[in-house]
Amino acid sequence: MAMLPFDDRDGVIWQDGQMVPWREAKVHVLTHGLHYGSCVFEGERVYNGRVFKMTEHHERLHESARVLGFKIPHSVEEINEATMEVLKANGIEEGYVRPVAWRGSEMMGVSAQQNTIHLAIAAWEWPAYFTPEARLKGIRMKTSPWKRPAPDTAPTKSKAAGLYMICTLSKHAAEQEGFNDALMLDYRGRIAEATGANIFLVQDGVIHTPTPDCFLDGITRRTVIALAKEKGYEVVERAIMPEELKKTQEVFLTGTAVEVTPVSEIDDLRFTPGDITKDLLTSYDELVRRPHELTASASASAA
Questions:
Q1: Is residue 1 domain-resident?
Q2: Radius of gyration, CA atoms only, the chain
Q3: Consecutive 10-residue runs of the chain (303 residues): their mean pLDDT?
Q4: Is 104:118 a contact under the CB 8 Å cutoff?
Q5: Structurally, how many domains does the chain consist of?
Q6: Is 157 in the same domain as 291?
């Protein structure tokens, strides 16, 4: 079946304060965000017409922009309201939201102090990142030769578009060899994350996850850590070397798009989605569909 291109769809996109027909939501080819990566974004999931942890996502969007040296001309509250307008206008009950902010085209060069800051919000139906079959079986991963950069060489605390180029390269290389995703190490050779998700290892009943000192401390990551602790699991955040995979029984990923996804294979190592992974997968699925007030409470406890 042919893939529906993202520039040729029905619906509307919120752009710079107004609803724009989907096909007319455009930027100029000499936009600074395209040429120099001065662009930040978020990815959000919609369950039963509600965006899970919407305010946290939009607070992080503002923080990402601050790290890149620009200010989004809309408050978190305004972005929240615009997001709900987009969902209503497009009739989205189960889907994905993509707010994106970027420097415009007034100046074309490394310096862009006078460029206008733009913001757009799009939403579309997207029930799952990986197919249900792949999620239940566990996905296959391959270690990438590309590494997450050191925090003094890149704005690693920002969800900046430019930082995802090495993720694209890594995922493409893995897919070309029949894998679903890539495992990325950091500049020190430690386990960091997947191309768009955080990673957890279960060793002898204890959950271990890398310290997020050079990659994003994901909103879903924090949520799952809070869920695990509420259930009585021990969670340890620490430096993890790839050699430790040999003594690991379960591996799973967390992220807004992937939710909680088991991993069955990394390179030549095999893992079985076990009781802890399945428990957290089920618990997360239940949490995101709870009534709003319960979801908000869990959000506060995870912060």
A1: no
A2: 19
A3: 84 98 97 97 96 97 97 98 98 96 96 96 82 74 97 96 97 97 98 98 98 97 98 98 98 95 97 94 91 43 36
A4: yes
A5: 2
A6: yes
Do 145 and 94 share a domain, yes or no? no
- Domain with residue 210: its CATH number is 3.20.10.10
Token output for 42: 């978020």
- DSSP structural state of residue 160: B
Residue from 159, 171, 231, 278 carrying the catalytic annotation: 159
Ramachandran angles phi, psi of 20, nearest 5°: -125, 135
**Residue 7 located in a structural domain:** no
Q: Do 255 and 223 sit in the same domain of this protein?
A: yes
**Residue 281 to residues 11, 13, 111, 126, 240: CA-CA distances in angstroms?**
32, 32, 45, 18, 22
Residue 157 annotated to the active site? no
Q: Where are the alpha helices (DSSP H) in the chain?
A: 32-36, 54-67, 76-90, 132-137, 165-176, 219-230, 275-288, 292-302
3-state class (DSSP) for residue 152: coil
